[in-house]
Amino acid sequence: MRPTLTLRHYTHDLIAHSHDHAQLVFGLAGCLDFEVEGIGGEIRPQGVMVLPFSTHHSCGSPRGSQCLVLDVPDEHWLVQSLGEHADASRRLLDQPQRVTLDTRQGQLVNWLAGSTLDDPLIAQQGAVLLLATLNGQSPAQQGARRLPYGAFNAHIDRHAAYPLQVADLARLADISVARLHARFIAECGLTPMDYIRTRRLQMARGLLRDTLLPIGEIAAQVGYGSQSAFAAAVLRAFGHSPGALRRLDNGR
Fold first, then answer.
1. Model pTM?
2. pLDDT digit string, tens, across residues 40-86
3. Cα 146 from chain centre
4. Fewest beta carbons less than 10 Å away: which of 130, 134, 173, 249?
5. Is the domain of 156 the same as that of 117?
6. Are residues 158 and 92 in the same domain?
7. Nearest CA to 131 among 89, 87, 97?
8. Could you give the number of structural domains in the chain?
9. Torsional class of 187: left (φ above 0), alpha (ψ -120 to 50), beta (otherwise)
C-alpha cells in the first residue's frame, strides 16, 4: 500500500467505521466532530486527529467541513520511508489523540491541500513530511469545562413527563449529539439516555418518599406510559418494587 492524500468533505451524515491502516485527519475548514473509542473531540483548521490501525471511530459535521486525510501505509513503509523518524512516528500512530499544528505545519498542510494529490510523488513525499513534522508533538489540551449538568437536570425536571430527546441536551451544551454521547461516557460513565433515565427515576423515588400520590400518577409524571413499565424500571434501578421502595424509604 502506498500513502494516499485526499481532500474530503464531511456533512451531517454520521460515518462510523474502522480502517486496516492508520489515518491522520487534518482540518482545513469548518468543524468535524469525532468520537474515538468513547472519547469525543472536534477538528478545526490547525487541528489533527490521529486514528491508529483498526480504531473504531465516528464523525460528522452538521455545518460541513473539509479535511486533508492521510492514509498511512504499513510498518514496512514507515521504516523504509522515515528512517530515524520511524520510531517517533510509530509512537504518534499508536494511540488516538488530537494534535494542534503550529503555523509552519499549518502552511504545509494548506500547500499540500492545494497540490496535485493524485501524483504518487507528492503523496509519498507529502506523507513523509507531514509525519516527520508531527514527531514530538504534544496532544492538544482538552477543555476543562465540564458539561452543563445543572442545565441538563433543570431541563429533565421540567419536562420529565414528556418525551425527552438526546438532541435537547446537545442543544443545551451547544455540541453535536455524537460529541455529547462521547463526553457523557468520558465524564460520568453513562450514555445521555442512561442519564435521563437515572434522573427520572431519582425524581420518582423522591415522589414515592415525599408524597401520597398513587404509583400510576408518579409513573406518568416521570414519563412512563404504563405502571408496569415504571415498576420494572424501579425494580432494576433500586432492587425493590415502587410500593416496597416507598415503605423502605419511609421506614415502614
1. 0.56
2. 778 999 999 999 887 888 888 988 999 999 999 887 888 888 888 88
3. 14
4. 249
5. no
6. no
7. 89
8. 2
9. alpha
